[in-house]
Amino acid sequence: MSMNAMSDRCEPVAGAGHASSSAGECGVKDQVMRSGPSSSQEVTRALPWLALIGPTGSGKTTLAARLARECGDVELVSADAMAVYRSFDIGTAKPTKAERKGIAWHLIDVVEPTEEFSVARFQELGAIALQAIAAHKNKAMIVGGTGLYVRAITDGLVIPPRFTDIADELNRRASEPGGLGDLYEELLALDPLGASRTGKTNTRRIVRALEVCLGTKKPFSSFGPGLTQYGSPRTMFVGLEMERAVLDRRIEDRLDAQLKLGFIEEVRGIVEGGEPLSRTARQALGYREIIEYLKGDRSLEETRAAILSRTKRFARRQIAWFRRDPRITWFDASSEGLFEHVFDQIRRSCVGN
After folding, report:
1. Do 116 and 204 share a structural domain?
2. Most buried among 26, 40, 50, 79, using CB within 10 Å?
3. Whole-angstrom distance, CA of residue 221 vs CA of residue 202
4. Confidence of residue 13 (pLDDT cuts 50, 70, 90)
């Protein structure tokens, strides 16, 4: 049954506006640690119809493209922290030409690798994209593995501002003997609730919470109840999972394919551009390791092993993040009937069964 035939039974995404889209290691959770839903956020008035999530290598992009093509009235919004970077093509496994053909993809190739990119900026661009999709009278499907980016759109997280000078100083202090303990005591005095959420040994979270407290003159905890609070399921959540051994093999096979496609040459071209990568761009899986290889710091075999180790750890963290969300309906990504199972779930949700 075509989704076009039932689209009048599906609730459309609200809102309108100009879109920023492309025809063509999360690393950022510290930017919104413990934020919470806010009904005042513009993004909550333009919610996606569906969010397709899962760990890296689980096949989200391929499935999303097929679903969008079958549905006919769906535009895709990438929720990948590294796909936003131009020239980061092979290593980030961006949609292929075949997966882009006839389908609108948003939030791919929106900034240069020299630029910083934050969850706040993603949330802003995502809201614009959702409004434009609604203006086209289409439905929006979020696709990606950066859990914080997904929730920034689906839950309208309140994003505390950044104060980089303050953060730099706090990180310097944290690196000194006894410095982290002193920072935690300072946070405890300024924001007891926020301190209870960070733990005493998590440098990144302590620094981020203190950065906001000092920069805004308000407790960090005042920006939301926490990432453990989940909004109402007004968006459908579909998750892809598989046995760990199967996922590991997929990750290995994909990296080998990327290397054959020219991953190293892609990184060499970016490095030879002259300008250094931004802090957030440097977090992209594989790019840092290949840069070290190009400098002669490690062999190709060591580089491959390092990328695989980091990617598999990253996939575990993604799984742990998504597993906490009770709104997600999970499907075995390795099953032969995956598309049919997911499509049937979408169809039944749309007709209200």
Report:
1. no
2. 79
3. 16
4. very low
